[in-house]
Amino acid sequence: MVARAQERQQPSTAHPELDALPHWPLDTIGVLITTDPGPHAIPVSWPVRAGDRRILLSLKYDRGSLARLRKRPDVALLLLADGDVALCARGLAHVVADPMPGAEDYVAVAIDVDVIDDHRQSAFQVTGGIRRAVLDESELRYLQARVDTLHRLAGEDD
After folding, report:
1. How many domains does the chain have?
2. Domain containing 88: what range?
3. Which of 8, 58, 121, 141 has the greatest number of beta carbons closer than 10 A?
């Protein structure tokens, strides 16, 4: 009982780290955190795992997050997805295609991951992530086309 009370008084700020990004479902939605100077968080659709320590995503050219990461490339991407994926990938972001081929109003962004914080817990398991209902089939096809482009970019950069 005393040991437990002492643990509460001195919380740990360290998280276990993963050596490599796990795989996650295609339709995963993440939360991208940028700074300027304070934190800003936005949902991002279907981030692509492009290697053990690289993530690609598409951002609309007029997003504030894109402007912030161009000025301050330190970012974090939170992923909670089916398959017990619970992580925060931290690293440097940079634009790899502006505009994206076939999507003139989007840019492709790479996050070169330095740290992968593992947020899985022994008492819980993530069995599903954030889901969106499709209201516009043309937007879904456009998202799928952008993700196909990101996969091609991932193959070119490996």
Report:
1. 1
2. 15-157
3. 58
158: number of Cβ within 10 Å? 8
Residue 66: Cβ-neighbour burial (10 angstroms; 0-12, 13-18, 19+):
buried
109 in a domain, yes or no?
yes
Q: Could you tell me if 55 and 48 are in contact, meaning their C-beta atoms sit under 8 angstroms apart? A: yes
Contact between 77 and 32 (Cβ < 8 Å): yes
Give the 3-state secondary structure of residue 16: coil
Is 113 part of a structural domain of the chain?
Answer: yes
Contact (CB, 8 A) for 91 and 114: yes
Q: Tens digits of per-residue pLDDT, 99-155?
A: 999 999 999 999 999 999 999 888 899 998 888 888 999 999 999 999 999 999 999
CATH number at residue 105: 2.30.110.10
Write the pLDDT tens digit of every residue in 2-52. 555 555 555 656 778 889 999 999 999 999 999 988 899 999 999 999 999
Instruction: Tell whether 29 is covered by a domain.
Output: yes
Specify if 8 maps to a domain.
Answer: no
